[in-house]
Amino acid sequence: MTNPQDAPTSASDRQEELDTGIDASLSSTLMRGIEILQCFSASEQELSNAEIARRMGLKRPTVSRLCKTLLHMGYLRKTSKGAFRLAPQLLSLTYPVLATMPWRHDVGGPMREIAEMCSGNASLGIMSGDRFVHVQTAGLPPGWPHVPDIGQSGPLHHSALGWSLLSMLRDWEYDDKIDEIRALHGDDFESARPVMDAAVARCREQGFCVSYGDWRPDLVAAGAPLGRTEDGLCVAIACAVPRYRAVSDYFESDLGPRLAEAAVSIRMSGVFKMSSKKG
After folding, report:
1. pLDDT at 1
2. Fewest CB within 10 angstroms: 16, 212, 257, 266, which?
3. May I ask the CATH architecture of the domain 100-267?
4. β-pairing verdict for 209-212 and 219-228
5. Cβ–Cβ contacts within 10 Å for residue 57, how many?
6. How far apart are CA 196 and CA 160, in angstroms?
7. pTM
């Protein structure tokens, strides 16, 4: 199921944002090349030159030249129909990033226990701009409506994982992040803010929050903040079950508190630290 929050921001929209306040020292050509890669998604894996040009708001010869460069570098590949797809070479860019996160494996045991506890899945997420990114997953029940695979991302302001990450920010960091999200998402952020604010406050007070389909309507998820890594990454954990199987009392009085307790236990390993919200 594809949701509005899932769809990547169109390249033309991003370009409009860049044009209004772009740093003259930045390379617009490099940004456009990366934006071409961002046009692809799990639901749109194959795009023609014309479709990319339409989304980018650029002339087809310009897009053709950029795509040819990405083909040469191995980041795009052509189909038998002449369309483009992302190429496996892109995965080589993620390995150095994942290699800096050995703590992903340290929490594998607790994550599997959480997944078994809720008969669902458990995932670790880190904050990246206005979104979270999954970096580890445990538990993949067959027929699951959503598998939070490594590299998948979602909106901070619409999800239990995102709210848990936001709850870890210091006051000034939180204010800056809210300004960033508001600038990018406008009315969508304002409509989601009351639920987000309540969830962030709950994470800070009770150690967990619950999302009843706020990001993916077919899922109910609980999230809990883990803390910051030594190099400053904010990390949170979440577990989810299909909405048809979700019982609110279970999430509110059983799974949520147990997830918060698990987060405290994981922090005792010393990998993650919780900082004061002040200062």
Report:
1. 39
2. 16
3. 2-Layer Sandwich (3.30)
4. antiparallel
5. 13
6. 9
7. 0.81
Return the SS3 of 51.
helix
What is the CB-side half-sphere exposure of residue 174 using CA atoms within 13 A?
20
**Domain 11-87, CATH number (from 3.40.50.800, 1.10.1200.10, 1.10.10.10, 3.60.15.10):** 1.10.10.10
- For residue 9, what pLDDT band results from cuts at 50, 70 and 90? very low
What is the residue extent of each domain of the chain?
A: 11-87, 100-267
Chain-centroid distance of CA 162 in Å reads: 8
pLDDT level of residue 16 (50, 70, 90 thresholds): very low
pLDDT band at 19 (very low <50, low <70, confident <90, very high): very low
Query: Residue 217 has which token pair?
Result: 């309507």
What percent of the chain lies above the pLDDT cut of 90? 56
- Please, which residues bridge with residue 77 across strands? 85
CB 169 within 8 A of CB 123: no
